[in-house]
Write a structure and sequence with these properties.
By secondary structure, the chain is an alpha/beta fold. The protein has 2 domains: 3-119, Response regulator (Rossmann fold, 3-Layer(aba) Sandwich), CATH 3.40.50; 130-219, Winged helix-like DNA-binding domain superfamily/Winged helix DNA-binding domain (Arc Repressor Mutant, subunit A, Orthogonal Bundle), CATH 1.10.10. The chain has helices at 11-23, 34-43, 60-68, 84-92, 105-119, 155-166, 174-182, 192-201, and strands at residues 3-7, 27-31, 48-52, 75-79, 97-100, 130-132, 135-138, 143-146, 149-151, 172-173, 209-212, 216-219. Strand 11 (209-212) and strand 12 form a beta hairpin. The radius of gyration is 19 Å and the shape is elongated.
Length: 223
């Protein structure tokens, strides 16, 4: 059974979506706000996300941006914002469809089926790893291997390493990393980044993170 994460803060719309989708044969999970949606996405596996835009704590655009950094899971945005600028913003974030409220439930179910069919087409690239020297990162599963051996990383260590490796040759400041990874939930000392870098350097095979004094951190481009 395919699993859908419904991210919607209106209880009436939640109930309507859940009931209709369950009757259509999908397994559903509910999230009331953006933070809960990201937590559920990190902890479980879903086939598609129905994502409202106007959410508490983190809005739908913020949720989509964070998810797209690590996954190409199909996302359909549901919103009362029908302006062109909002639709363009959603499409720029690579959502698979953008549906304005009010909408027809039968039409929504057919759109979900169509998006899921497209996402399962052979040859569509939905899983990508990052290789650097003897290290392989798997962003979809938050796993890492170095010299063929599993590498134990915290989620934040993994994300910092992923950012550095996807921006090889570029210096990332502490503020860059805080803005990209901590975003809405950081209220402390930016030196927390240094602590994570220090811990990363203790891991086997992680000897390539360079400090650019007074600026930040960098990983050189692999030759």
């Amino acid at each position: 059974m395919q699993k859908i994460l419904i991210v919607e803060d209106d209880p009436d719309i939640q109930e309507l979506l859940q009931n209709f989708l369950q009757e259509a044969g999908y397994e559903t999970t509910l999230a009331d706000d953006g933070v809960e949606a990201l937590s559920l996405f990190s902890a479980r596996t879903f086939d598609l996300i129905l994502l409202d835009v106007l959410l508490p704590r983190i809005d739908g655009f913020g949720v989509c941006e964070l998810i797209r950094r690590q996954s190409q899971i199909p996302i359909i945005m549901l919103t009362a914002l029908n302006g062109e600028a909002e639709q363009i913003r959603g499409l720029d974030l690579h959502v698979d469809d953008y549906i304005t409220k009010p909408f027809s439930m039968p039409v929504l179910v057919r759109k979900i089926a169509a998006v899921l069919r497209r996402s399962s087409v052979p040859g569509r690239r939905v899983h990508q790893t990052i290789a650097y020297k003897n290290l392989i990162l798997d962003p979809d599963n938050y796993s890492a291997v170095t010299d063929g051996q599993p590498l134990t990383l915290t989620r934040r260590e993994f994300e910092i390493l992923q950012e550095l490796l996807t921006h090889q040759g570029r210096v990332l400041t502490r503020q860059n990393l805080l803005d990209r990874l901590w975003r809405y939930d950081f209220y402390g000392d930016e030196r927390v980044v240094d602590t994570h870098i220090k811990n990363l350097r203790k891991k086997p095979g992680i000897d390539f993170i360079q400090t650019v004094r007074g600026v930040g951190y960098r990983v050189d481009k692999e030759n």
